[in-house]
Amino acid sequence: MTQNNQKEDILTTDAPSHRSQQVTRAHNQALILAAAEEEFVLQSYRGATMQGIADRAGLPKANVHYYFKNKKNLYMAVLRSIIEEWNDGLVTMTVDSDPKTVIEKFVRTKLHQAFVNPSRHKLFAIEVIGGAPHLHEFMSTTMKDWVNDKAQVMKEWHKQGKIGITDPLQLLILIWATTQRYAEFEIEIVGLMDKTAYDAEDEARAADFLVPFILRGCGLE
């Protein structure tokens, strides 16, 4: 066998192994992040432990340290994944996008996330209420840049006569407040509806009220 053929055989053999390692890594990281999210919600950052997170993930504690080094890194990874998921609904918006389509999609997406993953909203709320000690730098840099970018697009929409609002930041705050409330104050809301938990129709009921309400406020009836 020639030297070139030997190299080709090695590459062919190693490629599937490398892909398998990537799949395993992604799977383990997802397990750990999900377990950490639950642990932080139930025990708070101070009360959560790497061992508790490992137990919830069904993995050795050493694996948790291998992927995330320490509790602070893991906590930050959880918080950032939450924010990235929330912001994803506006990632592709441009000055050429249809405002009504973009805003409706964002409201419905944020509302769906609140009903499907209420613990994520509660964890974020706990961090912010506590003064955002772990997120302060992120919020004042990355998050602020994201907001400014989206606000600039909305201001351009206003200049083009596509939208009626002149203060995009207030619109974003309104959407965050109205959608996340369903998760953060779940107990209060289900109690006011004489229920013990949300049912399949509650998300649609909320969306059918909020979407046209917000669109009217934007001059997009």
TrEMBL record:
Residue ranges, compositional bias (Basic and acidic residues): 1-10
GO biological process: negative regulation of DNA-templated transcription
Keyword DNA-binding on entry: yes
Region: Disordered, residue numbers: 1-22
GO-annotated molecular function: DNA binding
Residues within the DNA-binding region(s): 49-68
Coiled coil: none
UniProtKB keywords: DNA-binding
Domain HTH tetR-type, chain residue ranges per copy: 26-86
Domain of life of the native organism: Bacteria
Name assigned to this protein: TetR family transcriptional regulator
